Amino acid sequence: MEAQKYVWDGAIPLQIHLHESQVTTLPPPPPALILAPRIGYLPLLASLLKPYFSSTLPPGVDTIWFDYNGLPLKWYIPTGVLFDLLCAEPERPWNLTVHFRGYPGTVLIPCEGEDSVKWSYINSLKEAAYIMNGNCKNVMNMSQSDQLELWHSVMNGNLETYQRVSSKLKLATVEDEHTSLCSSKSQQGFGETDLAGQVKTGRVPVRLYVWSVSEDFDDLEDMPKVDSWEKISYINRPVEIHKEDKCFTLHDALKILVPEFFSNDLMNVKSAGVDFEDALRIPSEDVSSDKVVEDHVQNAYEHREACSISSSAEIKLIRIQGIEPKLEIPFSWVVNNLMNPDYFLHICVCVKVPQQNST
Amino acid sequence: MMDLLHWDGTLSAKDFRIGAVAFAQKWESLNFAFPPWVWVPCPKHPWLASPEEEGYLSMEKICISRLNEEDIDQTTQIDTDEEEASCSGNKDVIDDATLVQRNHHELHYYDFHIVYSNTFRVPVLYLRAYCSDGQPLQLDEIEKELPTCSSKELSKSKWTFITQEEHPHLKRPWYKLHPCGTGEWMKLLFLNDTAQPKFEVVLELYLLSWFSVVGQVVGLRIPFKMLNDR
């Protein structure tokens, strides 16, 4: 399971400046240089940053938050994902500003330290469990000590402990013959057969972040910086995979999540257009396949609607864990090896869209 | 058509849209104290003008007056004029409350959004509360206004019942009622119906039934007799 190890060892070099409004000493303190784990979360750096800046901070209550070029950073998004999304051209070190005052409560949900980050992580895990298993019981029933051990393994980047504790959760994962061939032991149920023989489709937790730009750029460096979260579409939608389909690629998964970017690949729109009502009347005893049909029909509908606008929508960049994977890679491999400790696959996409005259 | 026995109580995104339209229509026809639910379409991307597919239901600026059980002995009659001016809706108020906490000299307003969850495949109630000057209310202040049984649930575990999360469309902090388990009790609600309706009928009534349960948590009660008129 080498790829997972690389992911867990991955880190972003940060150069963190204290916001000038909170600098009370002359000369101002030099920025802090920190290697932040990709799979970690920025507020967890408080334990290092508070002591570092303590001598210069004004007195009062400290609630840590970060901004990049003025954009307040969402603390519940893993550090690596923030970097992949907001730095089209990777900036090393990544220059961030830290604040201990003036928490932007209208933009960011509150963060009361490590506890908030832990609960956010556990809630994401519950959500992932629900997507994969159909219920969150296994996460809800975790013992306190297991929960703590799991959280600490994430905080400290301890993959071995994480794998040991998370395997107890028995979360249904994507069957992946590629990974199971490489690993001697199935640590997390990779390559195991279906939990219940009848399950034909699996749902995979995915979080997709789309940054749309309307101008073309030769260099990633020339791209404008994201100045508002309004410019980023956040798509939190599971991807359904048919377990018999061994050829389901990353490309296929993206086509399901953002069909509006793939209209060029579509066959003739007229033949793809399916009438909803007709599709729903397809008789079927299997409820789950009804839903799959509905979802596919919905995608076809979105295709048809989106075609008129997005024939020139162009994907500029797809990043997962800091790499730009080839779209032909089997989706199961991508999920099993590049997912975050919350069992979500976080995908960052930058897309160029045609200029809109009116909106 | 879908067999109710095998139904897991959840909805597709498309069904949610259909159900939302039906719910909004029913709500208005029931003609009681609250303003109508409005469907707000939400484009998937800022640059993509989406059809009506994606969106959420919105009912805003609701002034909730609440009768605390401790205050029952101290109820005072208030000016109906004042109540009409400050609260939305007509004179027919819902059964359970008429008292506005006069000692605070402030009214609390609530916005409710019903948003579809792709993960849980059910509707989710999002809410936020604020004073007349726009100042947002914190969770502990909201808790004080909830019916006592809800407060008990909340005190058991703050993190599993109402959580503060980013509104999926508005990208601002809102409070959300946790949807875990919704599919299960929605299925039970309909299985208990001896009439065994077809799925189309279930869909028509889904959100109304869902809201009759969830709304109670935040003190919005639909008179039962209205629910039974189908």
From TrEMBL, chain A:
GO cellular component: Atg12-Atg5-Atg16 complex; autophagosome; mitochondria-associated endoplasmic reticulum membrane contact site; phagophore; phagophore assembly site membrane
Domain named Autophagy protein ATG5 UblA: residues: 7-100
Cell location: Cytoplasm
Entry coiled-coil feature ranges: none
Gene3D superfamilies noted in UniProt: 3.10.20.620, Autophagy protein Apg5, helix rich domain, Phosphatidylinositol 3-kinase Catalytic Subunit, Chain A, domain 1
Entry keywords, A to Z: Autophagy, Cytoplasm, Isopeptide bond, Protein transport, Transport, Ubl conjugation
Main location group: cytoplasm
GO molecular function: Atg8-family ligase activity
InterPro entries: Atg5, ATG5_HBR, Atg5_HR, ATG5_UblA, Atg5_UblA_dom_sf, ATG5_UblB
BP term (GO), one: piecemeal microautophagy of the nucleus
Keyword Electron transport applies: no
Domain Autophagy protein ATG5 alpha-helical bundle region span(s) in chain numbering: 114-170
Autophagy protein ATG5 UblB domain: residues covered: 203-349
Pfam families listed in its UniProt record: ATG5_HBR (PF20637), ATG5_UblA (PF20638), ATG5_UblB (PF04106)
Record's keyword annotation contains S-adenosyl-L-methionine: no
Family membership: Belongs to the ATG5 family.
Task performed by this protein: Required for autophagy.
Oligomer status and interactors: Conjugated with ATG12.
Protein name in the entry: Autophagy protein 5
UniProtKB/TrEMBL annotation, chain B:
One Pfam assignment: Autophagy_act_C
Keyword terms of this UniProt record: Autophagy, Transferase, Ubl conjugation pathway
GO biological process, one term: protein modification by small protein conjugation
Gene3D superfamilies on file: 3.30.1460.50
GO CC terms, sorted: cytosol
GO MF assignments: Atg12 conjugating enzyme activity
Keyword RNA-binding included in the entry's annotation: no
Alphabetical list of InterPro entries matching this protein: Atg3/Atg10 (IPR007135)
Classification via PANTHER family: UBIQUITIN-LIKE-CONJUGATING ENZYME ATG10 (PTHR14957)
Family of the protein in this entry: Belongs to the ATG10 family.
Protein name per the record: Ubiquitin-like-conjugating enzyme ATG10
Species annotation: Durio zibethinus (Durian)
